[in-house]
Specification:
This protein is α/β, with parallel strands linked by helices and 504 residues long. Helix content is 38%, strand content 16%. It is elongated and about 90 Å long. The two termini are 34 Å apart.
């Protein structure tokens, strides 16, 4: 297994259990105490809140009993002592039996209060004067939630959400499952979430986008060797951690030779989109295999693309006898093979594809209709499939790959299990999109719903095939193709709906 790239720490996603163990091992094994970690976390959040809110504001601090409340108390101490803020602190379940570090911070805040700092401790939720606050700090529950919220939290959360007052969540909004992104009976809607030490996987799954607002990563001094998680957030920071991809080849069939098996009668558009995408992405050569009768369509529309007719002039889809032509060309001009866009679901096409893939040992992007033949293809030796990337959307995963999931966390778990059982890499499209290899998971950290239109999958396949062959690295290809598609959307002039034509 090759080493992972060096990603920014904020791009590593951890589960709740991983975060707890990292926190424990940093305290117990490495020797940095919990109070110090809390001080750094709360201080970082306070600095950001001060930058956003300014000085001399009034905040309501809603606290539970655990360390999440302690983080909120640190924020109150910094802002009241250094920025002239006023704080009302409300322990919704009382201030007895607090965690050790939270109790310590409560004592510090009370000392400041005795010496003239504007802190008040109130014994009930101030519903009658809620609108007197400039902001609210959520220090109620943190990451440990695994059941419905109990009284009085549902009523408190409803009032806060309806008020529209800016909410700052400590580590996770109360009511959100930090592993799955799902909510229980209700959840605070934060405008800003400060995640301490680790970024949480659940922030990018399920319903999280409705509740987390802007995520701020507050780095804690966790030793890097203790964090062995292999799930990462695909965003601008991760994309920028890769060097630009540039083709350096001595001739057109080297480092950027893309072979495409695509198209059938009525579905030639998929082949055209894929070929154009591969060419625009920077392929040195694109070879499109065409059933004989369809060749004239491609001759009229794809001038830069090498067309390789197979079968007779009457053929409108791929047949078993066509496999020899394809495999001979693949072996004489090795590259990356894209198979599937628009090839149809004829059983003869399935036999053809199985024959080609059984004989080819290079990189493969398996997309769209090709996935309908998975039951026949999965028996191909695993050493070949280790060079494959399959790219289903959610419907194709369920219809062709025997996937059963409803929620994002189940989709993530399915990707991991499918990759482990079959050896091939998996990129399942959706919002978010999820990529799984044998060494890492990538989850898109941006809205991918704009790509849920016909043609985008064909364009993505072309980009993946080209980047895969130029870099000889499917992981890199996925990062480049996915995020550059998003960059194209960001650069799109909104005079018309964003479509796949804006990528080709």
């Amino acid at each position: 297994m090759s080493a992972l790239p060096t990603y920014p720490k904020s791009c590593r996603l951890n589960s709740v259990d991983e975060t707890r163990e990292l926190d424990r091992s940093t305290i117990d094994d490495f020797g940095i105490d919990g109070f110090t970690l809390m001080e750094i976390a709360g201080g970082g959040a306070a600095s950001a809140i001060r930058e956003i809110q300014g000085n001399e504001k009034t905040g309501l601090y809603l606290c539970g009993k655990g360390n999440n409340a302690g983080d909120a108390l640190v924020v109150a101490r910094y802002l009241c002592n250094n920025a002239g803020h006023k704080a009302d602190v409300c322990f919704l379940f009382g201030d007895e039996d607090l965690s050790t570090d939270t109790a310590h911070n409560l004592g510090l805040l009370k000392t400041l209060q005795k010496n003239g700092v504007s802190v008040r401790f109130i014994d009930r939720f101030p519903i009658d004067r809620l609108y007197s606050y400039n902001y609210i700090v959520d220090g109620i529950l943190g990451t440990g939630l695994n059941s419905d919220l109990r009284t009085p939290l549902p009523d408190v959360i409803r009032e806060v959400n309806e008020s529209g007052i800016t909410v700052y969540a400590m580590d996770v909004p109360t009511g959100l499952n930090a592993d799955t992104g799902e909510v229980y009976n209700t959840c605070l809607k934060a405008k800003h979430t400060f995640t301490f030490g680790t970024n949480k996987t659940g922030f990018y799954l399920g319903k999280s986008p409705e509740y987390i607002g802007t995520v701020h990563f507050i780095e804690l001094p966790f030793p890097e060797y203790l964090n062995t998680g292999t799930t990462f957030l695909l965003n601008e920071d991760l994309y920028n951690s890769y060097p630009p991809v540039r083709r350096k080849a001595s001739h057109k069939y080297r480092d950027g030779c893309v072979h495409i098996i695509a198209g059938s009668e009525g579905l030639t558009g998929a082949a055209i989109m894929t070929a154009r995408s591969a060419w625009k992405t920077g392929a040195g050569s694109v070879i499109l295999y065409s059933p004989g009768k369809l060749l004239t369509v491609y001759e009229r529309t794809l001038h830069q693309i090498i067309k390789k007719p197979v079968g007779s002039d009457h053929d409108i889809f791929f047949k078993p006898a066509d496999a020899k032509t394809v495999t001979e060309t693949l072996k004489s001009k090795p590259g990356t093979l894209i198979a599937g866009p628009g090839i149809g679901t004829s059983s003869e096409t399935g036999e053809f594809l199985k024959s080609v893939l059984s004989d080819w040992s290079g990189s493969v992007i398996l997309d769209a209709d090709a996935l309908s033949f998975w039951s026949e293809l999965k028996g191909i030796p695993s050493e070949k499939k280790q060079k494959w990337l399959i790219t289903p959307h959610i419907g194709e995963a369920k219809n062709y790959l025997d996937a059963h999931f409803e929620h994002d966390i189940e989709r993530l778990q399915w990707c991991r299990q499918f990759q482990k059982e079959n050896g091939c890499r998996v990129l399942i499209k959706g919002n978010p999109s999820i990529y799984q290899s044998d060494k890492q998971t990538l989850i898109t950290g941006y809205d991918t719903s704009v790509f849920a239109r016909a043609g985008f999958g064909d364009v993505l396949a072309g980009m993946l095939g080209t980047y895969s062959d130029i870099t000889n690295n499917i992981d890199t290809a996925c990062v480049m193709a996915l995020y550059e598609g998003y960059l194209s959307f960001l650069n799109h002039q909104q005079t018309e709906p964003f479509g796949p034509e804006h990528l080709t």
